[in-house]
Amino acid sequence: MSPENVAVLILLGGFFLMVLLRFPIAYAVGISSALCLLYLGKPVTVVCQQMVKGVNSFSLMAVPFFITMGVLMGSGGISEKLIALADAIVGWMRGGMAMVNIVASYFFGGISGSAAADTASLGSILIPMMVEQGYDDDFSTAVTITSSCEGLLVPPSHNMVIYATTAGGVSVGSLFLAGYIPGAVLAISLMIGSYIISVKRNYPKGAKFSLGNFIKQSLKSCWALAAVVIVVVGVVFGWFTATESAAIAVVYSLFVSLFIYKGLDWKGVWRALGECVDTLSIVLIMIATSCVFGYCLTLLHVPELAAKAITSVTTNPILLALMINGILLLLGCIMDMAPIILIATPILLPLATSIGIHPIQFGIIIILNCGIGLLTPPVGTVLFIGSAVSGVPMERVVKATLPFYICMIIALLLVTFIPGISMFLPNLLG
């Protein structure tokens, strides 16, 4: 076996072994990368240099700002306003509260950008409300956790910033635009699944649609939704960068939470900032160690080797696209979202572009795959949060989620094989 092949085995074999042994992902990535470089005779200083290089990026400054914005808005009384708006729009349907849950997640996702935050915030309100109105607790939990993945696609999403930085040369503004329609496709797919189950189980309808109530709730929610408009419109039209827009959004979120909705006081602000630091420390350590991992992958030509291995099985673009999705879904079962984006993008993006998938479209594909991975054991973070919030055992939640997995896979296939779903808005607005 050649030294390069041994190095690849140390890098990838060591990483997956440590993942199976339940090492923290950042440690598994960093240790396997360091061992690989030491085997290749590289100095230890290379590890430090690559870690610093990984976080020394102006674009990445948007990540802490978007995380802070999401925590401030999520803690500032926004959830109730968005639930009321969603109820005014779709609450009249059969299984109305399930529809409200899905639509509210679309709105809230545009503010938090986090499936976990969506599940924790909206779930603590909506799951008890649904159970009280006659919905099964496991169904209510399944709707909440699956709809929370809309927040990963609807901008602003810090995961899109991470992907854009990893992929290189991908516009954050274009990614923001690309996420709206796929997020809506996912929401519609989940709503259809929820409606079928609701009719079968005879879940209740809500009050009739009222235009006056819709206008009233829209006016109440406009302050919250304006934060998304500020970010997306500002970036798309080039008024400011993603980092600058994120900083402006933090100031705006602080003002709205403190003085408009008054759901947050100054003590709450400090608690929210503490949560941000906890989350950000994990994300930045992961980015730093993944940069070393990416350096090793490039050094050993792993992307080219992976492309040759996969194309040796088949050259059919449809089968290759299905294989890429299968790999990402498999990784989602054992890894969290950020490390998948950081590690899989350098390997799979060249293969995806070789079969005609645009880098922006691939960004949406990888984020949606990772979202499904957040709901699959054994490392389904959102699955665990939903079970904890509702008090329903995880086994029952997984069983109730099975029909919604089908809805999400259908949405994934549509996004994969119909480029216009992702590319229509970026192409329309240049």
Characterization of the model:
The chain has helices spanning 3-20, 25-39, 45-55, 62-75, 78-90, 96-112, 115-132, 137-147, 150-153, 158-167, 172-201, 211-236, 242-260, 266-299, 302-311, 317-334, 337-354, 359-373, 381-390, 394-417, 419-428. It has 430 residues and is mainly alpha-helical. The mean pLDDT is 82.
Strand and helix layout:
Blueprint: H1 3-20, H2 25-39, H3 45-55, H4 62-75, H5 78-90, H6 96-112, H7 115-132, H8 137-147, H9 150-153, H10 158-167, H11 172-201, H12 211-236, H13 242-260, H14 266-299, H15 302-311, H16 317-334, H17 337-354, H18 359-373, H19 381-390, H20 394-417, H21 419-428
Helix pairs in contact: 1-2, 2-14, 3-14, 4-10, 4-13, 4-14, 5-6, 5-12, 6-7, 6-8, 6-11, 7-8, 7-19, 8-19, 8-20, 10-17, 10-18, 11-18, 11-20, 11-21, 12-13, 14-17, 15-17, 16-17, 16-18, 17-18, 18-20, 20-21
